[in-house]
Write a structure and sequence with these properties.
single chain, 107 residues, Arc Repressor Mutant, subunit A, two-stranded antiparallel sheet, 4 helices, 2 strands, 7% strand
């Protein structure tokens, strides 16, 4: 799977009152294509496993940990999922209990 994301390091950083190290970390997350690929694969897999039902960040976390074999940080994956959404790889869908997403198939 090839992702050609236009990940802009000038996008939203950490909160204005956070230390410079937090801003640097967020910029690195926004440009990490390996992490973006993991998140996109996890969303696609969770979507398929759940019978093509929209995916929550909890589903994303569980599937990403299963794929990678290592513990992941939920807030980091949520930030990466936001980058995927900005770039048209996932779409937010209405839900009554929490925010959910569906993958958008790209050629």
């Amino acid at each position: 799977m090839q992702l050609e994301l236009s990940l802009e390091p000038n996008g939203p950083d950490a909160r204005t009152f956070d230390p410079p190290s937090s801003h640097k970390a967020v910029r690195q997350v926004r440009t990490d294509k390996g992490l973006a690929k993991l998140a996109y694969q996890a969303i696609r897999d969770a979507y398929a496993v759940n019978g093509n039902q929209p995916v929550s960040d909890d589903d994303l976390l569980e599937r990403a940990e299963r794929i990678s074999g290592v513990r992941q940080q939920r807030n980091v994956l949520a930030k990466v999922r936001g980058v995927l959404e900005e770039n048209g790889y996932v779409q937010r869908v209405p839900s009554t209990d929490r925010v959910r997403y569906v993958p958008i198939e790209r050629d």
